[in-house]
Write a structure and sequence with these properties.
alpha/beta, Nucleotidyltransferase, domain 5, 3 domains, five-stranded mixed β-sheet, two-stranded antiparallel sheet, 7 strands, extended, Transpos_IS110, Transposase, Transposase_20
């Protein structure tokens, strides 16, 4: 057999080809040193275009070996090789890393990564348990469908707003009607306006009766073609959305996702959110630390410091971060919505404990808010003064002036602390509540991810 290990980059792959008929030495480190190639003009680096694909296929591999990291970049290579009847096997990140270290292969080296994949597959070829079994296309498709659903939701907002404006004069009694979908997945008002037949168990003539009593037709104001066309558009978008959701549910039923779904269901996470999170973290074996896991789901803290300015911002996927916020807001914050299990109890207790800290001592939180705002202003002033004053002075005078400047700013800080003491009554409580409400939700989401990481690792192991 000809086994080709592929280390995937953003727009290329680096390969390492071995033939099972070769007598490979036991010392893989020496083997790699002897056969490693120059990085420039590497004949086994293939770009993601026709020429690169053809060059890879000319090697006539019987199998390619991949890691499921960067799944959206590796999908096209796996797909093409599958179409060309080349077997595709996947190896977990942790297994490859352990194999590379065990055999003392270089780290942070694309060729070494590719060699580790090929050699690992060569050694364990007849043991299926050493390989991951999943369809990489399922993971990529889940994320693609989730993003498409977000696009459809954004597309629907302008027509909905416009229809409500139209109905204010054409059917005012229905202008502010709820737009909750029925059991057939259609929104009753849009279907009625569009004249669509609905596939429901219970037929309803609610809007027929409401329109018969409306003041609009009484005074010869009809429903315009413009309104009905927009309603038709919304029905089409709703049909499209329903098809996507059905495909998402079908993909989520794949056996490899079952342990993930079971854990996330215990956390009260819905199907659509599960689709997004699984598309980001599958397989969990590629995460060796909680930090990387949290970053992937949008809850990492990235430092953005320069000079005397120290700052942090939340990093990672903003899509995941917003969905985690909604999850806590809708399922953990309200007592009645919390999952009725041990996980729901832990998350609820954590949220309540953080919330009580604010409610029991609001003046303390106001003071903290003032202090943060004050510190931010002082840091900005310090940075601005140093950038504007110090470069204008001779270098031998700069340390002395900087020391004087720091002392002056420290005295200003002390004066501010004294003047602000006991003056929290001027702070708007609504703004404080909103700020610390978001903080509590963020802290609960981070705590939830810590619990989820442990549960997922336990479920997969």
């Amino acid at each position: 057999m000809r086994i080709l290990g592929l280390d995937v980059c953003k727009n290329s792959v680096v390969g390492w080809l071995i033939n099972t008929e070769e007598n490979l030495p036991k010392n893989f480190r020496e083997y790699f040193r002897k056969h490693r190639r120059p990085k420039d003009n590497d004949p086994l680096t293939f770009k993601a275009h026709i020429a690169g694909i053809n060059a890879l296929l000319e090697l006539k591999p019987d199998a390619i070996i991949l890691e499921p990291t960067g799944i959206h970049y590796s999908w096209i290579w796996a797909h093409i090789c599958s179409m060309e009847n080349i077997e595709v096997r996947w190896v977990g990140h942790a297994e490859v890393k352990h194999f590379r270290k065990q055999n003392k292969l270089p780290d942070k080296n694309d060729q070494a990564d590719a060699a580790a994949l090929a050699l690992y597959a060569f050694i364990h070829w007849h043991n299926d348990e050493f390989f991951l079994h999943f369809n990489a296309g399922n993971v990529a498709r889940l994320r693609e469908l989730w993003l498409q659903l977000q696009s459809i939701n954004r597309i629907q907002s302008p027509p909905i707003n416009r229809i409500r404006q139209q109905l204010a004069k054409e059917f005012p009694e229905a202008a502010l009607s709820a737009t909750k979908p029925g059991d057939d997945g259609m929104v009753p008002l849009w279907a009625w306006l569009a004249g669509r037949e609905r596939n429901t168990v219970r037929k309803s003539s609610y809007y027929d009766r409401l329109y018969a009593k409306s003041i609009a037709p009484k005074y010869r104001v009809g429903i315009s073609d413009f309104t009905r066309t927009l309603a038709n558009l919304l029905c089409d978008l709703r049909d499209w959305e329903n098809k996507m959701v059905a495909e998402i549910l079908e993909l989520l039923d794949a056996p490899e996702f079952m342990p993930y779904r079971k854990v996330m269901t215990q956390f009260g996470i819905g199907d659509r959110q599960q689709a997004l999170f699984i598309s980001q973290i599958y397989p969990i074996t590629k995460f060796e630390s909680l930090g990387r896991f949290k970053r992937r789901l949008g809850m990492a803290k990235d430092e953005e410091s320069s000079g005397d300015k120290e700052a942090y911002k939340t990093g990672g996927s903003r899509f995941c971060r917003s969905q985690l916020y909604l999850w806590v807001f809708n399922r953990i914050a309200p007592h009645h919505a919390r999952p009725k299990n041990e996980t729901g109890q832990k998350l609820g207790d954590f949220y309540d404990q953080r919330k009580s800290q604010f409610q029991d001592n609001p003046e303390l939180w106001k003071q903290k808010a003032l202090s943060r705002t004050q510190k931010k202003a002082m840091d900005e002033l310090r940075r601005s003064l140093k950038e504007s004053l110090l470069p204008m002075l001779p270098k031998d005078q700069q340390p002395q002036i900087e020391a004087i400047l720091n002392l002056t700013l420290q005295n200003m800080q002390l004066s501010l602390d004294q003047s602000l003491a006991g003056k929290t009554s001027s702070v708007k409580e609504k703004e404080i509540k909103r700020g610390f409400g978001n903080l509590i939700i963020s802290q609960t989401a981070a705590y939830g991810l810590r619990l989820m990481f442990k549960e997922l690792k336990r479920a997969i192991d």
